[in-house]
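Notes from the pairing session

We agreed to fold both candidates in a single pass and log them together. This is the raw record for the first candidate, unedited. Please don't reformat it; downstream parsing expects exactly this layout.

Candidate A
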Amino acid sequence: MLEPVEVAIAILHTSDKFLMQLRDNTPGIVYPGHWGLFGGHLESGETPEVALKRELWEEIGYEVRSPIKFGCYNDARVIRHVYHAPLTVELDRLNLQEGWDLGLLTPDEIDRGSAFSAKAGSVQPLGHPHQQILLDFIKSHIGHE
């Protein structure tokens, strides 16, 4: 049996919205054409926090200062180290280097499990694990910060 891969992903939020990446609609990738959280695989010897900072810089040119560990979500294939931090810049300051689109999704869109993408020209689904992570985060943090 294969060892699960480890990834570090970020819940980047404004006061009432969450930054998400619309994954490329490429067959063969995990959750093609789905909204997901930014982040990626840990490289050899990296801690999850170091990987998160590297991935956010590579994917959107965003330097996250002090991410806070939210939790760890495991299944047979993936160990997801989840962090959260405020998004401190406007969307037009981010430079999307990976993925089809990015957007700030509302709690209602996250709850519904889909959101419109201008670049895709359609409503696209959220990847189930990322939707569940955000629903858990909203339940535990909104109104508590």
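Candidate B (folded immediately after A)
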Amino acid sequence: MNNQNRSFFFNVDWLTIILFLCLLTIGWLNINAAVYQDGPSLINFSSNSGKQLLFIIVAISTGIVILLLDSRFFFTFSPIFYGITMLLLMVVLLVGRNVGGNQAWIPIGSFRLQPSEFAKWATALLLARHLSVMNTKLSDLKTLIPTLAILGFPVLLIILQPDVGSALVFTSLIFVLYREGLSPYYLVAGLMMILLFIFTLLYTKFYVIIGLVILLAALIYLFRKNRKLIFVFISGFILSLLFVFSVDFVYRNILKPHQKIRIDLILGIVKDPRGAGYNVNQSKIAIGSGGLWGKGYLQGTQTKFNFVPEQSTDFIFCTVGEEWGFAGSFVVIALYLILLLRIIHLAERQRSSFSRVYGYAVACIIFCHFFVNIGMTIGLMPVIGIPLPFVSYGGSSLVSFTILLFILVKLDSNRMGIV
């Protein structure tokens, strides 16, 4: 083994790869449990678990290819990757296959390609290139607007599908900008919008507006000697009023019935355990029935008798909870948290801003999927249909998550270089 190959071998972050392989194995075993019907299915290629094994082989092969490429390849071709995936997002609106109310898949023979999954790492790459090449000062609107455009364009195309879950994942990349110097006032404004959104749905507009008026009066009284702050408070009050009326309009006139009922369920406005809330209710029953140690592998009754829909994909975590119990669920969550902490560590030790920004983008995307997916299964988040990284069934999501992670591993292995 020559010095270059030896250096490459030792520079690769094997802890990240080991965590990746552990999650792949857990996903494969639990997909098998979700489809198990009293017969061997792990390598039965007509079942989801057998197909997932093929996807795993493709994903690992893709990861190896990425590690063999030059790190500068990703920096150089990031605009092309972004352009191709945006084109695919437009194509899917024309020829895409509608599944579950979302026109998000392009049929290719027996395989279905989901462009939004691949657009995540492509957007992360272009965002990293933009912030590093332009030496962007995010406090300047002239540089902030193009940055938001890079994030906003795929969000717009995905909302047209409409796939709210995937669009939410792209908006999580906003947090990358805070690491790169975006003012925390934007974060405060975002949190205020979330609170106003919730209060507007829980209460009538009248009570929300009264609350805003009282808050404005209190702030003006407390800071009455600071004219600049008073101007900011009044401007914020006007924008808040506009937002409240827009939320009410969108909720009543734009959102589809199934989207409104999901929001109503999570906010507790309605209860429908046998209708729209059936999935989440059965998921919580499955997870709760696992107890501390679980019922045992392939012994889950909720799993085996198909009480939980989409159990191989969006609700795969309830299989973990039922068959592996609290202990197994804790291990899976711990693996994700260790992986996320490791990704942040890799991002922080990069010498180039391109690699650092990309690393934080990877952390944001994986955390959003992890948090929302598990939140869905235990009733803390609305059901918006996004997979659990490396664990849920699906070729597009598995390969795209592998690309997302292994590009960071490759960039980290060459952190002493120019990229």
